[in-house]
Amino acid sequence: MDDFWVFGYGSLMWRPGFNYLEAQKSRLFGYRRALCIYSYVHRGTREKPGLVLGLDRGGSCMGMVFRVDGLQREPVMAYLRERELVTNVYLERSASVHLYDGRRVKAVCYVADRHHQQFAGSLGVNEAADRVSVSQGGSGHNVDYVASTVEHLREMDIRDHWLEDVAAKMNRVD
């Protein structure tokens, strides 16, 4: 069975949760990292939804791509579906990813479903920062989620100026 690739743009980048044969920085064209998903459980509530990352249409996204042993396809895909498709706000897709070494590969990725009730749409920096500042859920305050994401991206030498701008404008309100 052939090896396969998985693209990560958020926590999957630094906490994939599965074994892989190779990991490399990569760029996915046609989608961008965005706080475009309402969180009603982990980083917010129904009354005060938080925001979590999704891949939304437009632009490009720097992330990590993982090559997985084809013999592990079934358990890894089951794990990813359990992790990513809990409320079906993400759609599983196969997309062309450009690796830093020049190769192009097809990779599994999870993109935001723009028709799902949890899709927040394209928010401005101030609107996203205001929402994040007042939201918390079962996994903690939304501010911590965004700050941790920005910190991890910087550690990986990946810049996301929009997300950094949101983080700079956040004011934690408990």
Write the layout of secondary structure elements.
Blueprint: E1 4-8, H1 11-14, E2 22-39, E3 50-68, H2 73-84, E4 90-99, E5 104-112, H3 125-133, E6 136-137, E7 140-141, H4 142-155, H5 161-169
Parallel strand pairs: 1-5
Antiparallel strand pairs: 1-3, 2-3, 2-4, 4-5, 6-7
Helix pairs in contact: 3-5, 4-5
Note the main sheet: 5 strands, mixed, barrel
The protein's oligomeric status is single chain
Average of pLDDT:
96
* Portion in beta strands: 35-45%
Percent range of helical residues: 25-40%
Enumerate how many helices there are, as a single number.
5
Q: What is the count of β-strands?
A: 7
Distance between the amino and carboxyl termini: 50 Å
Order of helices and strands: EHEEHEEHEEHH
**Radius of gyration from CA coordinates:** 16 Å
Question: Could you name the ranges where pLDDT drops below 50 across 5 or more consecutive residues?
Answer: none
Strand order of the largest sheet: 1-3-2-4-5
Structural class: alpha+beta
Global geometry: globular
